[in-house]
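dude i think i finally got it to work??
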Amino acid sequence: FMVSAFPVVASGKEILFPIWDLPQLSGHLNAQIEENWFSRGSAFWGYGLWFLNVIVHFFTLLLLNTLLGEFLARSVGKFKGNRWKTFGPGLAYLIGIPVLIVYCLATMLSIPFGLLLLATYLISIWLGDCLAALLLCHLLNSRNERSWSYWTIVLLSLGIVITIDLLVFFPVLGILIYIVILAFTYGVFFNLVKQTYPNINLLNK
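look at this
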C-alpha cells in the first residue's frame, strides 16, 4: 500500500511513500510544513516592513513639508537657470561627501567630524526621495496657482516616494535611476537655497 504526502512546494508534485515507512513519511510532512510556514512568515515580514517603510515616509513627509513647505512653495516657482546644470553639483555632493568622509576617518584627528558627516550624509540619502517628491509636487503646485492643500501635497508626495522606492528593486538600473534622481534633487535644492539666500556659498558658484 502507498500513501500520498503533501505536494512538494517547489514542484507541486505529490510524493508517494509506502504506508509502512512512517518515519520517512513523518519527516517529509514535517519538512513541508516548516517550509510552508517559513515562506508565509517571510512574506508576512516582507509586507510588514514595506508597510512600516510607507508609514515612516509618511511622517517624514509631514515633517519636511512642515519645515520646508513654505520655502519650497516660494522658491520653486522662481527657479532660474538650466535644470540640467543642477545635475553636476548634486552628483558632486553624492560622490564628494563620501570621499571627504573616508579622508576624515583615515586621519585619526578628524574621526568625530567624519562620523558626524557620515551620519548627516546617510540621513540626507534616506531623505532624498522624500525631498525629490516634495520638490516635484511644489513645482507642479506652483504651475497650478498653488491651489493644492497641505495634505494633497503630502499624499501626492507619498505616492511619488513609493514609486521611487519600487524602482530600487530593479537591479542596477533601479539604483542608477535612484542616483540620478538624488543628484537632480540635491542639485536643484542647493540652487534654490543659493537663489533665496545669495550670501550662502554651496557646492556651485
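Residues 22-75 form the longest helix (54 residues).
im so relieved honestly
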